Amino acid sequence: xxxxxxxxxxxxxxxxxxxxxxxxxxxxxxxxxxxxxxxxxxxxxxxxxxxxxxxxxxxxxxxxxxxxxxxxxx
Length: 74
What we know:
It is a single chain. The chain is α+β, with helices and mostly antiparallel strands and about 70 residues long. The protein has one domain (about 10-74): Gcn5-related N-acetyltransferase (GNAT) (Aminopeptidase), CATH 3.40.630.30. The protein has 2 helices and 4 strands, in the order βααβββ. The protein has helices at about 20-30, 35-45; strands at about 10, 50-55, 55-65, 70-74. The longest helix has 11 residues, at about 20-30. The radius of gyration is 14 Å and the shape is globular. It starts with 7 loop residues before the first strand and ends with a strand. About 15% of the residues are buried.
C-alpha cells in the first residue's frame, strides 16, 4: 500500500500555536493551560517544537534545560 506524501515540517512553536497546543494537550489527557505553554515558550523557545501538516500543528514536543544539571523532555 502506498501512502501519499504529506506536506509536513518540524518548526519552532510560537505564541500563535498555543490554541493548537491546548487542543492536542486535551486530546492526550494532559493538563497544560495556556499559561503553562506561555511559560515553556518563555523559558526555552528553541526547545518548543511542533510538527505541522497541511498548515496545522499536529504534534508538539518541548525540551527544557535546567542549567547543566537536568533536562526535561515533554
